[in-house]
């Protein structure tokens, strides 16, 4: 499946986690996951998370002035949330390029329309779960007296690991057979995945959600640099040119960001570095591996290994602080806090799983373009939900960075592959 054709496209995928680097490691898996797609999209859909969250009392979160303020959750109607829902639906419709939609229609008009509708529904669920994850996660990180990014990361990965074992136990997906050699190759990818999640949570705990995702839009820059250093892939001049608005836009947004914090800035940058290092390592370590597992199991094994690796780090850095007695002494509702963290973990695993399922149905370039649109939706929805102050210059910088990412995605589409 296009090990080198997907190299440039892999750089535009996000932290949260799921990226097109698994497309480079697996071949011809679209048909294998058609059955899994429908069950997973319903299992991980946002409707259940919304219903559970609406029964919770308000979670008091520290605002920019240091005072605690209540935050309500997204609902299906009313005010800003109605605008967010409309924006998600419109963005998802725009995320399905004509070439992938028409490809689905090969089997017939009726089947093509059904396949396109199902793909659109999966993209809407992907976007919504990402939005809910960022909101729940920011609420939890903002409510804690300390951000505790290692503990939150371990909790999210543990929740995902539990769902993965349930998937294997119920035979929704075959259990992988791993060799010691395969584990040795996957372990570095799990380290990158775990550290990327830690740094993202660290950034979200310090700065606004919109600013974190603006910085993470600079992922293509790290992809180009790391691919040139370790894979010997020299980018074309147009691709290099697309990096200019990305870097310039991130710099402009950083200079004018109200919530700017150096820890939050460098944490988001470190997340870009670790995530794209994982992508490059996947190409280097898994290239030509005939025994590599399918993308769902690869993602699952990486998640489980990431959880096991995060536990020692959590206990060493934050284990003493994250205790019921310590949290109750701060006046927080421990049960409510754990429920919100669980919902964030559900959304975290759900949107990553859906990203892999969507990737198995579309081309890597289409996936990267949809991922770029998803970042726009997340930024806009977080600005609306949290009423984040944003100046015209800041908006210009964010827009320039996202336009550069979109241009980068389109340029990789026309890049000629090195092998026939």
TrEMBL record:
Top-level taxon in the UniProt lineage: Eukaryota
Name assigned to this protein: Sugar phosphate transporter domain-containing protein
NCBIfam families listed in its UniProt record: tpt
UniProt entry tagged with the keyword ATP-binding: no
Domain Sugar phosphate transporter, residue spans: 118-409
Source species: Sorghum bicolor (Sorghum)
Localisation: Plastid, Chloroplast membrane
Keyword annotations of the record: Chloroplast, Membrane, Plastid, Transit peptide, Transmembrane, Transmembrane helix, Transport
Any one Gene Ontology BP term: triose phosphate transmembrane transport
Residue ranges of the TM segments: 113-136, 148-169, 296-317, 390-408
GO cellular component: chloroplast membrane; Golgi apparatus
Keyword Iron: no
Molecular function GO labels: phosphoenolpyruvate:phosphate antiporter activity; triose-phosphate:phosphate antiporter activity
Lineage start: Eukaryota, Viridiplantae, Streptophyta, Embryophyta, Tracheophyta
Bilayer topology term: Multi-pass membrane protein
């Amino acid at each position: 499946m296009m090990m080198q054709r997907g190299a440039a496209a892999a750089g535009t995928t996000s932290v949260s986690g799921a990226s097109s680097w698994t497309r480079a490691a697996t071949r011809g898996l679209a048909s294998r996951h058609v059955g899994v797609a429908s069950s997973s999209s319903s299992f991980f859909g946002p409707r259940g998370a919304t219903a559970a969250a609406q029964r919770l009392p308000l979670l008091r979160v520290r605002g920019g002035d240091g005072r605690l303020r209540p935050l309500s959750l997204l609902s299906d109607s009313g005010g800003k949330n109605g605008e967010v829902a409309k924006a998600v639906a419109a963005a998802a419709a725009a995320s399905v390029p004509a070439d992938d939609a028409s490809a689905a229609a090969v089997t017939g008009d009726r089947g093509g329309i059904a396949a396109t509708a199902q793909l659109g529904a999966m993209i809407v669920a992907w976007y919504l779960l990402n939005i809910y994850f960022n909101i729940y996660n920011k609420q939890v990180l903002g409510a804690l007296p300390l951000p505790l990014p290692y503990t939150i990361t371990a909790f999210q990965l543990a929740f995902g690991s539990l769902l993965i074992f349930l998937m294997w136990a119920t035979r929704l997906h075959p259990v992988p057979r791993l060799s010691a050699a395969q584990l040795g190759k996957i372990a570095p990818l799990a380290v990158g995945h775990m550290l990327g999640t830690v740094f993202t949570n660290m950034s979200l705990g310090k700065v606004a959600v919109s600013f974190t995702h603006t910085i993470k839009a600079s992922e293509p820059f790290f992809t180009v640099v790391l691919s040139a250093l370790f894979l010997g892939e020299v980018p074309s001049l147009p691709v290099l040119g697309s990096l200019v608005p990305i870097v310039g836009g991130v710099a402009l947004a950083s200079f004018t960001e109200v919530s700017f914090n150096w820890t939050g800035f460098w944490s988001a940058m470190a997340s870009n570095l670790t995530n794209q290092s994982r992508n490059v390592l996947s190409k280097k370590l898994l290239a030509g591996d005939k025994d590599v597992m399918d993308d769902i199991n690869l993602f699952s094994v990486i998640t489980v290994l990431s959880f096991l690796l995060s536990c020692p780090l959590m206990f060493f850095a934050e284990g003493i602080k994250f205790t019921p007695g310590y949290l109750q002494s701060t006046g927080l509702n421990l049960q409510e806090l754990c429920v919100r963290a669980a919902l964030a973990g559900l959304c975290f695993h759900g949107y990553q799983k859906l990203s892999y399922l969507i990737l198995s149905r579309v081309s890597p370039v289409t996936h990267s373009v949809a991922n770029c649109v998803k970042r726009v939706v997340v930024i806009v929805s977080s600005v609306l939900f949290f009423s984040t102050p944003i100046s015209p210059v800041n908006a210009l910088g964010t827009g320039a960075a996202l336009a550069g990412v979109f241009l980068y995605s389109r340029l990789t589409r026309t890049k000629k592959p090195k092998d026939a």
